[in-house]
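Support reply, case 0932

Customer input (verbatim):
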Amino acid sequence: MAPSNVPAALLLLLLLAASGPLRPMLSGAAPLEPVAVSLLAGAQEKGAVCLDGTPPGYHLQRGSGDGSGSWLLHLEGGGWCSTLKDCSGRRMSVLGSSNFMKPLQFAGHGIFDSDEIYNPDFYNWNKVYVRYCDGASFAGDAEGQAQDGTTVYFRGLRIYEAVIGELMEKGLANATQVLFTGCSAGGLATILHCDDFSARFPQQVSVKCFADAGFFLDVRKDISGERSFWSFYNRVVQLQNVRQVLHKDCLANKDPTECFFPTELIKSIRTPMFILNSAYDSWQIQNVLLPSSSSPEKSWLSCKDNIGNCNSTQIKVLDEIRNTMINDLKVINDKADWGMFIDSCFTHCQTLFRISWSSPTSPRLGNKNIAKVVGDWYFGRSQGVKEIDCEYPCNPTCNSLPPP
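Our regenerated output:
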């Protein structure tokens, strides 16, 4: 992902995130009331602010019944920014300012759904959707000066700490069971903060982490032979100063940028974690393997848009990406309380959509959809919940395109 093209390549995904992945549901059922945004109290005093200096926000829907003591916390995704210019530009969007944050619809949206039929294990839990407005997976702590002389705040780490602190005061501290989740850049944030988050609770509280589409690969070469995504990550690490959240044992032997990749991060995590990812992750194929900077030829552009258009030679290249992911995840086999669901669907982020989370057309492995496998893992209903799909196009339950 070349310096000048990264933001452009991410723009569509970011704009989708700007309206929130939790958009009004498309089914015929009457939607519930949208969940209002809560702005962090005392944000400026804590230095816990968005890129433009506004307070960060989150959406809290209270649980009910036997779920009133259980909490689901989700960190929003939306790519990263690696230069002052790019980060400054995000200040005029929901990914850099709470001025643009609106109420979100939880109903009908996967793991946030309050319908017991589609979300049987978490439907009545307290649910929190933490908005993403820092550009570095809730990890940075620095600031810079934009061209117009204004300050750009890289305060993701402070946002994470302050929001968790405020939620503790709102009942999270009394939770009996907690699931800490995130999607895409928020999935990476979940991996980064997993142990710190779980350490905030008494040992008897069941705290587990769940990263959706956050297992970004350190692909050594894109289609043009460049290590462009690593270079992009390196700029994020340096600009936003994410070193503080990286594991010390990794930093003792490796470059900080390497320690920002999940491949290294998962080696040190002690808290039980579940990894949900496509082995043919559509975002990574489009932006890591085939960034616009690599100037892919016409046949690759068609393949990039829809894996169904890829020829046999191109599929072999994608299979190599799959094999890299499977190999990087081998360390999980030695972690008895971890789980994974690695399907072969051309998709990215599967927890926030009913169609992929739990529906008649959801992807299945071992005849179980994602909601069932995650629930079995969290509640210990089955042993060794580690599902890895066969190579594309072997799984007939995969939809051919990413969720809307």
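We compared this against your earlier run and they match. Two observations from our side: Residues 1-20, 23-31 have pLDDT under 50 and may be disordered. The domain at 40-388 is CATH 3.40.50 (Rossmann fold). Please reopen the case if you see a mismatch on your end.
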